[in-house]
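YM 10:42: B12-binding domain-containing radical SAM protein sequence, as discussed on the call
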Amino acid sequence: MQIDQPETILSSESARYSEEHLKQLASEQKSRKKWLLVQPVSNTSMMVDSGTVSIPLNLLMVATLAGELFDITFIDERLGDTVPDDLSEFDVVAVTSRTLNASKAYAIGDLAKVQGKIVILGGVHPTMARDEASDHCTSVVYGEIESVWTELATDILQDTMKEVYKASTLKSMTNMHHPDFGYALQSKKSKKYSSRIPILATKGCPVGCNFCTTPTIYGKNYRFREIDFVIEEMKYHQERLGKKNVNLSFMDDNISFRPKYFLELLEEMAKIGIRWNANISMNFLHKPEVAELAGRSGCDLLSIGFESLNPETLKSVHKGSNKLSNYGNVVSNLHKNGIAIQGYFMFGFDNDSEESFQLTYDFIMENKIEFPVFSLVTPFPGTPYFDEMKSRLRHFDWNKYDTYHYMFEPTKMGGKKLLENFVKLQQEVYKGRAIMQRMKGKPLNWVWLANYMMHRFTKKLKPEIYL
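YM 10:58: structure's back
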């Protein structure tokens, strides 16, 4: 009898959190509980939430999932919508957060806790800084909500909340819910959303750069949806908008990690006439046939983290997919197939010197990178890099963890020189003459507009704004 007891307990626990039990509980409710889902605005001084903003796909997926059992009110503060001071009409207040808007998310959580609500915090920052986030909510969702949904929803219905919901195993993407865009588009200010529609084909990135939060959230897992489901979702948007050439943005961490899957997906996409962009690693973009297929499938822009032109820096952050010898081939292959490049470059590493800025400028101009994006190295909480650099960090003001504020002094150059060169590089790259040189012969589209906006923005830059 004593031997059998653990099995009995396990069986009982499993039954309590089964989908069948959840459905039964939901059917017994006299009225559906009401959720307030919030996408907070950031408090950073930089251009993070200005202009058009992307539809928050992860929060939209939460709304779609929760909407099967609960009544949902969806608020995106970036649009100008506001969270009411009086939360009496809601039972649950759920807020997503990344580091740069964590203080805003915590303020909303504190307000809701005072009013006796079930408060759920999720997203990157609560996952990476779980103990801190716990002070401002009832429960922290660690990682993705889909993998803990049955347990979380059951506890909400029974009012038996735990401090943390963390999945022992991540759920397959096979049955991932088709996001209902109606939750986001019902806002009167939804025109502020980008026309590019977010979509997801894969999750995770096993590369393991030491400054990245993805390995903590997903471990070394790499999951993907069946290609038929991804294509079906694309066709849904074509029908919804009444046109074939819809613009899609993949929200994947590393869509090309499995080459066979990626290439098969592109072959199917080439048949339906969409346009798309994505973040992508350089694993095999040096192969001409990959760039050709990407162009044929409707790709108009790829966002690539070049990060640095210094091989020692790339080695220090475990950026193994970046090989300097491939940089030129990657750019050439993409440009030959009409694909523009949003290139990301980071500064402030210990190996950086004034020469690093000149090398980056030369590379951008020689290779005509259409949309260069510059950032300052930011060790995010919960990453190996944060643990390594913690004693050297200038502050822990999460509002400034936006990759645009000076976090620590590199060993090879002082902070003043770092910021002076950082400003100079941006202003030189976005001078009118430099824009014309980089964009000569390129189609007149939103990338031109982005360059014009950056030209205006960088003219006003001064080193002190990055402090």
